[in-house]
Amino acid sequence: MNSMRYVELLSPAKDYDAARAAVDHGADAIYMGAARFGARRAAANSLEDVARTVEYAHQYGVRVHSTLNTVLYDDELADAERMARELISTGIDALIVQDMALRRMNLPVELHASTQAGTVTPEQALFLEQCGFSRVILERALTLEDIRRIREATTAELECFVHGAICVGYSGRCFLSRSTSQRSGNRGECSQPCRLPYDLKDNSGRTIMAGKHLLSVRDLDLSEDLEALIDVGISSFKIEGRLKDARYIKNVVNYYRRQIDSILERRKDISRPSAGRTTTEFEPNPQKSFTRGASQYMLHGKRSGVASFDTPKAVGEYLGRVAKITRKGFSLSPACDLTAGDGICIISAEGMNGTNINAVEAGNIIPNRMDGIVVGADVYRNYDHRFSQSVDRSRTRRTIDATAHLTLSADGISLSVVDCEGVSVTIKRDVALESSSEKLKMADTACRTVEKSGGTIFSISSVEVQGSEYFAPASLLAEVRREALEALRQARLQRPLPHLILADDGTARYPYANVSRYENVTNSMAREFYLAHGAEEIEPALELQPTQGERVMISSYCIRREIGQCLKKSPTLRGDLYIEHGTARYRLEFDCKACQMSLIDCSNNTQKR
Fold first, then answer.
1. Distance (Å, rounded) from C-alpha 114 to C-alpha 40?
2. Contact predicate 40/269, CB 8 Å
3. How far apart are alpha carbons 145 and 147 in whole angstroms?
C-alpha cells in the first residue's frame, strides 16, 4: 500500500441513492448492507445495487465496505459464505464482520473487525490484527487515551465513529432487546429498548425518578475533535446512520468533508484517499439534521451530561423561549428566522409537544396547534423548511480535475487527457484536416470545445492546443472529447484500489483463557477459531440462552454519575438501584474501578431464540 497516511471519511448508505449522495458530497468510502446478515436488517441491498454502488464509487477512488456483521448460526454458515463471495464478486473493497466464522472461510477480501466485536483494549486490537484483520472499528465509548494505547499496540488501521446515534451499551455485548422480545441487536433487529422511559427505584421499591429515558444518550458529534483523533492514530472517521435518508447524508457528509479538508490544507503528513472536489449550493449544518443533541460522549473522559432524560427524539436546534402569547400565536425571545413550513418542538413543565408553523407575520408566529405553547416554554426547530429545500435543490457536483492536450494535423486529431492522480488516456481520430485560415479562432474554438466537461465526472482545468493551423469542426472535437472522457472514466474504474488482504496463520493467542458467553460464539466455525487460537474454555453464547439473571448490558455510561450520585463521591442514594419499564426490570450493577455500569435482567419474561 502507499506509505502516505490517509484520513478517510466513511459514510453510511442505506441504498444506492444514499450511496450516490454520499459520494457526491465528499465521502472517501461508504458502508452498506447486503441482502442478509447485516446489523441493520432494514438497510438491506440486492447484489445488483451493491454492484451499481461499486461502479459509481470507484470512479472517484471511493471504497465500498459491505456489512456482514451479525452473529451466525450453524445452519446459516453456507449461506453467509455464499453471500460473502457474491459480494466480493461485485468488487467491494472490504467486509465488516463480527462473527469469527467469516475469518475461517479464507475469503479473498480485506476484513474489518466490526464495532460489534467490542474492541476496547490494546490486547483485543492486537489479537484481531494478528488474526488478519486489516482494520479494527473501535467501541464508541473509548477515550482519547484509550485510543492512544490501542494505537501503540497495533499497526492495524483504526476506525471510529464521529457522528450519529450512540449505542449506550458496548456494541455486540448488549442483550437488552432480547431480554424483552425475540428481536436481537446482534442479529440486526434491535428494538431499541434503551430509548424507552424507565422508573428508577431503590431496593425497597421507592420511586426515585419516574418515566424518564434513563438509558437514552445524546448523539455523537466529534467534529471539533477530528485533529485530536488523527493525532492519536485514527485513520477512518465513521458517520452512523444506515437508516438515514439522502438529505441527512448530504448535509452531514459535506459538513465533515469541509472539516477534514480544512485540516488537510494545513498538514502535509496526511491526505485523503479518494479524488474529486465537491461543490454544493448549501452551507452544511448538522444541527439541521436529525440529532438528539450533540455530545462528545466519553472521548475526553467519563463524564455526566451525556443523557437526554426527557425525550429520545430529535428536538432540533434551540431557538429561544416563548415571550408572549398572542391572539393567533406567540412570539419568541430572542427573535429568530422561523418561517412557514418549519417544524418546532416545545418543552415546558407540561412535557413535550410539536407542531408546524403556518405563517410568521412581523414576529408573530402562527403555529398549526398551540399545544404546550406557554410563556417560558423552550422552543426548538426540528425541521427547517428553507434549509431542507436548499439541500434538495442543490446542484451538487463532485468533479476530478484534469488537463487536456489536443494536437491537430493534416492526418487527424489526437487528444490526451490526464487527471489529477496521473491517470491518462489518448484518443486518436484518423481524418484528413484542411488548413485553417484563422489560426487564433481555431485555437479558441478548440479550447472552448474540449473544456466542456459538464455532465461527466471531470473538470478540464486547462487545454493546450497544437496545430491550430488545421481546421477541425467543433462537432468532431466534441465527439473526440466525449470519447476521451469516457475512456478516462473507464481507466479509473480499471485501476485497482489498494487492499490489505491478510491471512490468519493461527499463531496468534487469544488474550484471555476463556471466551465468555458475551462474546457470542454461536456456531461451530467460530468455536474452531477460538480453540485454534488457544482458548481453553468457550462458554455457551448468551445469544442462545435465557437472559434472566444475566448481565444484558455493560456500559461506560452510568446513571449514578448522570444524576450526581456517583459512588466515589459520597452519594446520598445508597443500596441497590433498579430501572423498570412495564414487566421489564433490571438491577444496576456498578464497577467503580473500571467506571462501568451493568444491567442485570431481573424480569420474568425471558425470551429465547
1. 13
2. no
3. 5
State the virtual CA torsion across 606, 177, 184, 221 in degrees, nearest 10.
Answer: -160
DSSP string, 3-35: SSEE-EEEEE-SSHHHHHHHHHTT-SEEEEE-S
**DSSP structural state of residue 138:** P
Instruction: Give the whole-angstrom CA distance, residue 405 versus residue 408.
Output: 10
pLDDT confidence of residue 43: 67
190 touches 553 (CB < 8 A): no
What is the model's pLDDT at position 40?
67
Number of C-beta neighbours around residue 54 at 10 A = 21
Residue 9 is placed in which grid cell?
471519511
- Give me the residue spans of the domains in the chain: 5-166+218-274, 315-393, 400-494
The C-alpha cell 489560426 sits at: 439
**Does the structure show a pLDDT above 70 at 546?**
yes
Amino acid residing at 599: L
**Using CA atoms, how far apart are residues 133 and 117, in angstroms rounded to an integer?**
12
User: CB within 8 A of 25, min separation 6: which ones?
Assistant: 249, 250, 253, 254, 257, 278, 280, 396, 398
Radius of gyration in angstroms for the set of CA atoms belonging to the chain, rounded to a whole number: 28
Q: What pLDDT score was predicted for residue 1?
A: 40
Dist CA 332 CA 352 (whole Å): 17
Pick from 422, 427, 382, 412: nearest CA to 292: 382
The strand pairing partners of 96, in sequence order, are 67, 112
Count H helices, E strands: the chain?
13, 33
For 349-370, write each residue's pLDDT tens digit: 888 899 999 999 988 999 999 9
Helix (H) or strand (E) holding 238: strand 236-239
Mean pLDDT over the full length of the chain = 94
Instruction: Say which residues have a Cβ less than 8 Å from residue 328's Cβ, sequence separation at least 6.
Output: 364, 366
Alpha-carbon gap, residue 54 to 16, rounded angstroms: 10
Asked if residue 334 has a cis previous peptide bond (ω within 30° of 0), the answer is: yes
Predicted confidence (pLDDT) at residue 608 exceeds the cutoff of 50: no
Among candidates 159, 141, 23, 16, which has minimal Cα distance to 90? 16
* Alpha helices (H) in 316-454, listed in sequence order: 385-393, 439-450
Q: Which CATH superfamily is domain 5-166+218-274 in?
A: Aldolase class I (3.20.20.70)
CA 388, 390, 391, 392 torsion-angle sign: positive
**d(Cα 45, Cα 14) in Å, to the nearest integer?**
8
Is 454 exposed, middle or buried (CB count within 10 Å of its CB: 0-12, 13-18, 19+)?
Answer: exposed
Q: Are strands 577-581 and 63-68 parallel, antiparallel or unpaired?
A: unpaired
Residue 195 CA, distance from chain mean position: 20
Question: Cα(609)–Cα(492) distance, rounded to whole angstroms?
Answer: 47
